[in-house]
Amino acid sequence: MTRRIVRRTAAAVAAGGVAAALCLVPALPALAHGAPVRPLSRTAACAPDNAAAGTAACRAARKANGGPFGTFDNLRVAGVNGKDKQVIPDGKLCSGNLPAFAGLDLPRADWPATTVTAGGALTVQYRTTIPHQGSFRIYLTKPGYDPTKPLGWDDLGTQPILTANNPPVVDGSYRMSGKLPAGRTGRHLLYTVWQNTSTPDTYYSCSDVVFKAAAAVTAPKPATGKAPAKPLASRSTQPNAAPAAGAPAANQSGLTPAGDTSQATLGRQLVTAALIVIVGGCGAMAFLRIRRARAAKGFHRRPEIR
Q1: Crossing angle of helices 262-296 and 2-24, rounded to 10°
Q2: At CA 191, angle to CA 187 and CA 195, rounded to 5?
Q3: Domain map of the chain by residue range?
Q4: pLDDT tens by residue, 236-246
Q5: pLDDT confidence of 66, banded at 50, 70, 90?
């Protein structure tokens, strides 16, 4: 009889823990995988909690999409194995040919964009919610790119301007850096391909950018009878920091910054605490039920031996 009660106690505690976990599952955020947040990608720009989600381009994209987008960092295609051009057709590069992201393929010249400097540094921050092993290839559109026409593979350079194999994750984001070509002006697009080696998935994303010319170094004419003035230093430019005209900046995306992990940590702590409280409560209730069952069946403590 005692063994039966012990087994019932263990089963009650286990069932309580499982029930507690299942009750908490709906409150947990859906896990996804990754997308660029700097330069700002279209998926990140049009995410529901993004400041750019209300722009004309994102509104039009949702309308063309027939509803809300899928999770902003879950634009992935399985089984590509490097055959990107064979799997992803022209005109579907930004969506990866996925119906849940179809609106991202709209050819428009008003997508939220990040301002960059021709010939300057390119700093990439690729937000990751589930890190994977793999390689990144980032392509830039060719000179003469027309954003009002559907994006095709021939619009991209034949070689990526930046590659990285398993770059470091810093504050929740892969960090990569390279250099942008000189002589570019106007609106262009960065196309990022993240091919996993730890999973069969390949991720695709489009980041709109606007090139500005590098600031020229000028020197004022020296005043008569005075020593020549020192040349003025060129204006400092922070790559990927300033917003394009009429478009939100990458650092104004409205998403939780990748470096801000306090909310995620707090969420995990709250979930853990809730599980402990619920499981503990279930265990206490099971113990009381056992006590009552023993009392009802006439079980009493054995008298002490004197």
Answers
A1: 150
A2: 170
A3: 2-25+267-296, 32-218+232-254
A4: 333 444 444 44
A5: confident
Residue 81 pLDDT more than 60?
Answer: yes
pLDDT at 26: 29
- The DSSP string of 186-217 is EEEEEEEEEEESSSSEEEEEEEEEEEEPPPPP
Tell me which of 5-19, 85-99, 271-285 is least confident.
5-19
79 torsion bin: left (phi>0), alpha (psi -120 to 50), beta (else) = left
Tell me which residue has tokens 């390949």: 202
DSSP string, 105-150: G---S-S-EEEEETTSEEEEEEEESS---EEEEEEEBPTT--TTS-
The secondary structure of the chain in percent helix, strand, coil, rounded to multiples of 5, reads 30, 25, 45
Distance (Å, whole) CA 185 – CA 39: 16
* Per-residue pLDDT at 84 exceeds 80: yes
**Where does residue 150 fall: left (phi above 0), alpha (psi -120 to 50 degrees), or beta otherwise?**
beta
CB 130 within 8 A of CB 172: no
The count of residues in the chain is: 306
Whether residue 39 has a cis bond before it, omega within 30° of 0: yes
As a whole number of angstroms, the distance between CA 92 and CA 102 comes to 8
Which conformational region is residue 51 in: left (phi greater than 0), alpha (psi within -120 to 50 degrees), or beta? alpha
Residue 85 has pLDDT above 70, yes or no: yes
pTM: predicted TM-score of the whole model, two decimal places: 0.64
CATH topology of domain 32-218+232-254: Coagulation Factor XIII; Chain A, domain 1 (2.70.50)
In this structure, are residues 117 and 214 in contact, taking their beta carbons and an 8 Å threshold? yes
Tell me the three state secondary structure of residue 156. Answer: strand
